[in-house]
Amino acid sequence: MQYYIANRYCLLGTSGIDGTDLLPAPTKPAVTNVSAYIAMRDALLSQPKDTAWVVATGTLTNLAILFATFPEVAEHVRGVSIMGGAIGGGFSSVPISQKRGDESRVGNITPWAEFNIYCDPESAESIFSSPVLAPKTTLVTVDLTHQVLATKTVQSRILGVKGEAGEKQDPTVLRQILHALLMFFAGTYDTVFGISAGPPLHDPLAVAILLSNLNDQAKTATNLKEQLIFDDTNGTRYDVSIHTDGLHHCVEGADLQGEIGRTFVKPCPAGAKGVTIPQSVDVDKFWKTIYDCLDRADQWNLERTRTT
């Protein structure tokens, strides 16, 4: 599957992670003796009830099939964190596009839709409309991710530059990979959306939900240096629906596309259950968490090489 947007620029490259040739080769062969859905079910059900989270950072097809085939998994998991969707209309403090004349844009693949939801809107709708899953679901939209930019300062810190004096270490392979990916994204986001300060970070924010105030388990985690803070507007929850009418843009005739894949939200009545959609995050704390993860990964990789 290729990550094309409407004007044919490719945000993440044809592989989805273009920009580096340093990715390591797999050390183990692919698992082929069991269905992925069975494997996901077994892994989640092997955890105590109400503890496991599912983080989805792509199209929701597999997740929807998992929950539809094994509804007991939906009952069993504690939470679902999804990177996807675009709301617009002033939902957050930043526009999706900073190009002149494009400030009212909502989505990143069409003027109305975000890529992950657009690719399979029916699967997304099945999750957001589920009375079991919706109250467990946190949706990280591009309205939030476009607030978290990998600026030049962040890029330097990822390479290992620390402090105002510019204390520098030789970057590990991991840091080189991440920096190269960010540089690729920076070019495409500048070209497509006019975002020149640095590319937004998407998927890690969906993972970061598990380390934040939106996960009660994080409050008691002894190995968490600092809890992340997402603003969910004083506990506001939302009814979420996905527009499923229309044809994808590969079909000739833009008038046939409509608003397919568009995310619509409506605040629930006070105290009612619904989807959590944070509107902002403590950006500085988020990047500190990323730096801490990199430091830990570097240390683990170093210790691993010493024992092999």
TrEMBL record:
Gene Ontology cellular-component terms for this entry are:
cytosol
Q: Which domain of life is it from?
A: Eukaryota
Tagged with keyword Hydrolase: yes
One short Pfam family name for this protein?
IU_nuc_hydro
Q: Taking every annotated instance into account, which residue ranges of this chain make up the domain Inosine/uridine-preferring nucleoside hydrolase? A: 11-288
Q: Which UniProt keywords apply?
A: Glycosidase, Hydrolase
Q: Which residues form a coiled coil?
A: none
Gene Ontology terms, MF aspect: purine nucleosidase activity
One GO-annotated biological process of the protein: purine nucleoside catabolic process
Q: To which protein family does this belong?
A: Belongs to the IUNH family.
Name of the protein in its database record: Inosine/uridine-preferring nucleoside hydrolase domain-containing protein
UniProt source species: Trichophyton verrucosum (strain HKI 0517)
